[in-house]
Amino acid sequence: MDAFEPPASAEKLYEGKAKILYTTDDPEILLTYFKDDATAFNAQKRGTIAGKGEVNCAMSQHLFRLLEGQGVPTHLVDCPTADTMRVRRVSIVPLEVVVRNIAAGSLCQQTGLELGTPLDPPLVEFYFKNDALGDPLLTDDRLRVMGLATPDQVHQLREMALRINQVLSDFFDQCGITLVDFKLEFGVDDSGRLLLADEISPDTCRLWNQAETDPNRRVMDKDRFRRDLGDVEAAYQQVLQRVLAQSF
Question: Is the previous residue joined to 121 through a cis bond, with omega within 30 degrees of 0?
Fold first, then answer.
C-alpha cells in the first residue's frame, strides 16, 4: 500500500502510536490518519498489522454513528478516505476512561481476580493519559488533587461511559461478540461540551467471539498481537465484517 500523503496545505499537529492528526482548511476541523503501526505494553512492543488503519477507521465511524443515534455526541464529521477521518477540534481531557464488564488483562494481574469473572455492575476506571508515567490508575482523590477534570466533568465522564457501554454491549452481542472491556477518550469543544473522541476499535476494546470457548481462539482484538496468538489481521477483519453487517 502506498504511504499516506496528507493534503499539501495540511500541517501535522500530533503523531501518536496509532494515528496522526493534521490541520485542514477549516480551523475547527482536523484530519486523523489511522496508521497500521501496532504497539503494546506502553510501546515496548512494536509491529505492524496490515490493514489495521482502515479497519479501525471504518469501525470507529460505524460505532460513532451508532452512538450519535443514541444521544452520545462524538467528534466525528466524516471519513473522506478508507483510513482518514475528519473530526471536530476539541481539547482532549487527559484521562483514559476504561469500562470493564469482565475481568481481564491488568485487572486480573493487579487484583488476582480470575480471567472471565463477570463484573456487575460494570467497573469504570480513570487513568492518567501520560506515557512517561505509564498511564497510572487514578483514585477520585488523585483526580481532584491533580485537577485533570472538574468534579462535574468526572461525573459526566462516568455517566457517558456507562451509557456507551450499554449501547455497545447490546450491539456487539447482536454481532456474536462479547465486549469484555474498552478504553474511551473525550474532548471538550469551544462551548464546553464533552464529546467522545479518539476511536472505538479492536485496538481499544477487548472482544471475545461468542462462538469460541477456547480462551485463545476466542480473542478478536489487539490481545492477539500483545500475546503473540497469531492471525491478528484476520481477527480484525472478522470484527469489522460483523460490525458493518449489523444495521442500527
Answer: yes
Radius of gyration of the chain (CA): 18
Q: What are phi and psi of 62, to 5 degrees?
A: -60, -45
Q: Detail the DSSP E strand segments found in the chain.
A: 12-15, 19-23, 29-34, 37-40, 45-48, 76-81, 84-88, 91-92, 95-102, 118-128, 137-138, 177-188, 194-197, 205-209
CA torsion through residues 227, 229, 233, 234, sign: negative
Work out the angle at residue 175's Cα, subtended by the Cα atoms of residues 169 and 177, and round it to the nearest 5 degrees: 60
Question: Tens of pLDDT along the chain (248 residues)?
Answer: 457 888 888 999 999 999 999 999 999 999 999 999 999 887 788 999 999 999 999 999 999 999 999 999 999 999 999 999 999 999 999 999 999 999 999 999 999 999 999 999 999 999 999 999 999 999 999 999 999 988 999 999 999 999 999 999 999 999 999 999 999 999 999 999 999 999 999 999 999 999 999 999 999 999 999 999 999 999 999 999 999 999 88
Q: How far apart are CA 47 and CA 50, in angstroms?
A: 10
The total number of residues written for the chain in this structure: 248
How is residue 24 written as a grid cell?
485542514
Nearest Cα residue to 78 out of 37, 32, 25, 9: 32
Instruction: For residues 99 and 122, give the distance between their C-alpha atoms in angstroms, rounded to a whole number.
Output: 7
- The answer to whether the beta carbons of residues 43 and 131 sit under 8 Å apart is yes
pTM: 0.95
